[in-house]
Design a protein that fits this description.
123 residues; mainly alpha; globular
Length: 123
């Protein structure tokens, strides 16, 4: 008998770190502005990120780096920089941000490729 619960679909279910990264990403992006935040806005954003992260400087760095790398040279880059700043202010591990920025660049490049159709620009 077929049991869909026992069949691997090539994906792992998201673990607690993945869920926390998604929550941190959403909070950082929500608080990021196209302008400098007011002191009260910055305080509230940093407090929320610190509370969510619960000491996970590595995950704050992941969020900051992915945002910076994935949105480099896009119209969203200024807002991504603002979100990354908030992650840094909340205690992101600065040493980890560059490697995550590279991962963000890789993910953005993969997202731009056309599946099974060859390089972009080809008929």
């Amino acid at each position: 008998m077929f049991d869909p619960g026992r069949v691997s679909h090539g994906r792992r279910s998201p673990g607690p770190d993945h869920i926390l990264v998604a929550q941190l990403d959403g909070a950082a992006w929500r608080h990021a502005r196209w302008r400098d935040p007011t002191p009260d806005e910055e305080t509230a954003a940093v407090a929320e990120l610190r509370e969510l992260a619960a000491g996970r400087a590595d995950l704050l760095a992941e969020v900051a780096g992915i945002m910076l790398g994935a949105r480099e040279d896009t119209l969203d880059e200024p807002r991504a920089r603002a979100a990354a700043y908030l992650c840094r202010a909340a205690g992101a591990d600065e040493a980890l941000i560059p490697q995550w920025a590279e991962e963000g660049k890789r993910r953005a490049a993969r997202a731009r490729t056309r599946p099974h159709a060859g390089p972009a620009g080809m008929p």
